[in-house]
Amino acid sequence: MTNALTSTAIPLLLCAALGWAGLPARADGLSSYGTPGLIDMPSATPVKDGLLIDTLSVLPEHYRNSTTFQITPRISGVFRYSILENFGDSGNPNRYDRSFDLHV
Question: pLDDT: is 88 or 22 the higher one?
Answer without folding.
Answer: 88
